[in-house]
Amino acid sequence: xxxxxxxxxLEVVDEEKQIxxxxxxxxxxxxxxxxLTGEExxxxxxxxxxxxxxxxxxxxxxxxxxxQRVLESLGQAYQDEVEQIKASSIx
Length: 91
Fold this sequence. Notes:
By secondary structure, this protein is of the alpha+beta class. It has a single domain (about 5-85), classed as SH3 type barrels. It is built from two helices and five strands. The chain has a five-stranded antiparallel β-sheet with strand order 3-2-1-4-5. The chain is globular and about 35 Å long.
């Protein structure tokens, strides 16, 4: 199962390559924010939905927390996704 998981943007680490440091379920990883432009462009403190290393959309904190709660209720499927995030890296 592939999930889009909410994460909080901590900082933009490479503006040219459009990479941001994002915290997802306690794990910090670099993700590509290049798909988000204009008003969708995230800033530190914003939440985004992430799938395979790309931020797909910016969401508000309420939606992020509710999505996180629903995902956690999936049990093993969610845990598998978190493990994949832990093992991933974008430099």
